[in-house]
Amino acid sequence: WTALGQAGFTRSDSVVGVGGGATTDLAGFVGATFVRGLRVVLVPTTLLGMVDAAVGGKTGINTAEGKNLVGAFHQPAGVLCDLTSLETLNPNELVSGLAEVVKCGFIADETILDIVEADSHAAVDASSQANRELIERAIRVKAAVVARDVTESTSRGRDVGREALNYGHTMGHAVELAERYTFRHGAAVSIGMVYVAALARLAGRLDEATADRHRDVLESLGLPTRYRGATWRQLHEAMKVDKKSRGDTLRFVIIEQVGRPAIMQAPDPALLTAAYDELTR
User: Fold this and answer.
1) CA neighbours within 13 Å on the CB side: how many for 208?
2) pLDDT classification of 67: cutoffs 50, 70, 90
């Protein structure tokens, strides 16, 4: 903000964010807050940035208390994705971004899962047609969900709005906080999806085969599906400050079948710990 003020930025100027998800989130937040709103153009250079962070207008920064607790909704004027930039990524960074792609498969577009299952090696090849199709499909899923619920305010009962995009993120953000943000976001979301699939299965709301499919698909891409880095108490406390919580009530995005997200509110504590136990095996 100081730099923009010293440079004389006004509402006729724009902020351009080039980089990964944290960079585009920060650029968007600066654009949302300086003079109460500047135009923002985002150029994500990571897979996660392309399919998630740069699309949809959520901006934010982390605090010591939790992930993205300070932020604003501010739609970018444009997003430019140059897929050739992905060929320069560390392989682990590319794989991390695929967790958000898989998430879109489970909540909305089963073809994403089919593509990964057909050839997981092509899915992690930044130069492949399969990788390009996965990215395009994930962006379409997110754009369609956001268009129906821009400010994440329409979830009612079985009608889940933009919150569906938080599938796997309640536990995922808790893992990131426990790891002091040294854990890749996609890896944490992968763990979070496995956790919430186990939770839904234990509650009788998801069949065993679909829960197992989470581990199979994510592991085929090289993503983690087990976690022993923090105690249940640590993770539970971290989840209490999740944005989807209401007061002291935990709320989780689950799926009841592929393409059918739902909200689970105030799960039985015994189910929460049982799902955690499965995560540590």
Assistant:
1) 0
2) confident
For the segment 90-112, what is each residue's pLDDT rounded down to a tens digit? Answer: 999 999 999 999 999 999 999 99
Domains delineated in the chain: 13-83 (3.40.50.1970), 91-279 (1.20.1090.10)
- List the beta bridge partners of residue 263: 253
State the chain's mean pLDDT as an integer.
94
* The pLDDT of residue 11 is above 80: yes
Specify the range with the lowest mean pLDDT, choosing from 29-43, 45-59, 149-163, 260-274. 149-163
HEC assignment per residue over the chain: CHHHHHCCCCCCCEEEEEECHHHHHHHHHHHHHHHHCCEEEEEECCHHHHHHHCCCCEEEEEECCEEEEEEEECCCCEECCCHHHHHHCCHHHHHHHHHHHHHHHHHCCHHHHHHHHHCHHHHCCCCCHHHHHHHHHHHHHHHHHHHHCCCCCCCECCECCHHHHHCCHHHHHHHHHHCCCCCCHHHHHHHHHHHHHHHHHHCCCCCHHHHHHHHHHHHHCCCCCCCCCCCHHHHHHHHCCCCCCECCECEEEEEEECCEEEEEECCCHHHHHHHHHHHCC
Q: How many other CB atoms are there within 10 angstroms of residue 192's CB atom?
A: 28
